[in-house]
Amino acid sequence: MTGMTSSARPHLNRRLAEFGTTIFAEMSALAVRTGAINLGQGFPDTDGPEEIREAAVRALRAGHGNQYPPGPGIPELRTAISAHQQRRYGLLFDPDTEILVTAGATEAIAASLLALLEPGDEVVALEPYYDSYAACIAMAGGKRVPVTLRPHEDSFRLDLDELRAAVTDRTRLLLINTPHNPTGTVLTREELTAIAELAVERDLLVVTDEVYEHLVFGEAEHLPLAGFPGMRERTVTIGSAGKTFSFTGWKVGWVTAAPELVAAVRSAKQFLTYVSSGPFQYAVAEALALPDTYFTAFRDDMLAKRDLLATGLAEAGFKVFRPAGTYFVTTDIRPLGTALSQEGDGFAFCRALPERAGVVAIPNAVFYDHRDAGAPFVRFAFCKRTEVLEEAVKRLKALA
Q: Which pTM value belongs to this model?
């Protein structure tokens, strides 16, 4: 016992006590242990464009970014982000004052919430939500107020009346995600217009996570919230290279916003990583300048994979919500029957699935405050090689 201390107080900050190990770590470990195909965690199983990988190698060899890059990000990348936003959306951002490079979108979310919230501030977030949202709100001392996207026919929809009712005098910020992970919902022009009007009317800040902006399918359209009336000066938009260029390990994300918002987020970010991903920033600057043919081919490839997995899941007996965006398919397990679906318990279903079918998925309930609302839903990732998806579909059809 020498050298040990005892205390009635737990070691972990009580704000984080509810979070523990992420479901992604648990399910990925289960995939390794059972040899199952991992369709749980959302990372590709192939690298992105060879010329972009070579751009990172060139930067390393030339000594670009091997030492601390500038705190806001290298000028080349900030300029490339600015050009990308203008070319695709007609939005003008000053590379020097309105763009901040971060260690992936996850740090951008953390820095934004730490910078903009005071203890007790309420944050209205769309539920189910990416798991870091809840943890970052908690670390900032905020209170999350979930507004649930609910299944309607073949998709999940936002109830605008419920959103308006969730806003109180204590609401500081709306946390929006479109295209939405995990449901695959892409908010419409009408929905975004209503969100913008609510933010202006109630004088709210908005943090909008748009990392899947280039993965929008069919008739759906990605519309940046910052482009709506009254939103340019109150919106922090978060983007990322990982999902678009299939280099998730590089951890290059960014924030675009008005100068005073970027300055606030930078004040928090400088005490998190300070800087990161030096040589990779040079490569991502080149990636953002790729021709439109790259982005179209990338989207079309993911669309084909979406349809392959979604059709296979439906044939296996799942109720499938075919996503309008992202690279995830959400399913309802209840049509599989009481025994197979573990009585509609997504956690139990996902823990049994590797042994039963040799596939790993993620229970959506982990993304909900209202666990019962998410209990029967399970998420599968389709950002994998075609042959991997074909084998996964073959295994899953055994459930039928």
A: 0.95
